[in-house]
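Tokens in:
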């Protein structure tokens, strides 16, 4: 008997695991975002829930739709970085690999 890898293993795993993981990351990111304060130029359309999960299958993402999300995530000369999305990945038990 010979063991052979299922060629669709990674695709099937991503399809089942990624949406649930993205929802967990979004929940943590929302909490970290609230802790850093709400004065981050909210987008009128995303005011109720600025951290949203999108995509499907293997292409799932978590995004912050506030106008100042890049400042909240990466900081600037006058603002320290709060990194709600990056911190949320770790809080969900995942590893972030930046390219």
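Residues out:
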């Amino acid at each position: 008997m010979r063991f052979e890898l299922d060629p669709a293993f990674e695709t099937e795993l991503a399809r089942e695991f990624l949406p649930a993981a993205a929802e967990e990351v979004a929940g943590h990111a929302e909490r970290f975002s609230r802790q850093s304060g709400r004065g981050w130029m909210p987008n009128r359309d995303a005011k109720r829930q600025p951290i949203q999960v999108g995509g499907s299958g293997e292409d799932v993402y978590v995004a912050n739709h506030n106008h100042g999300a890049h400042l909240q995530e990466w900081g600037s000369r006058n603002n320290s970085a709060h990194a709600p999305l990056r911190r949320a990945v770790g809080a969900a038990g995942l590893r972030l690999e930046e390219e």
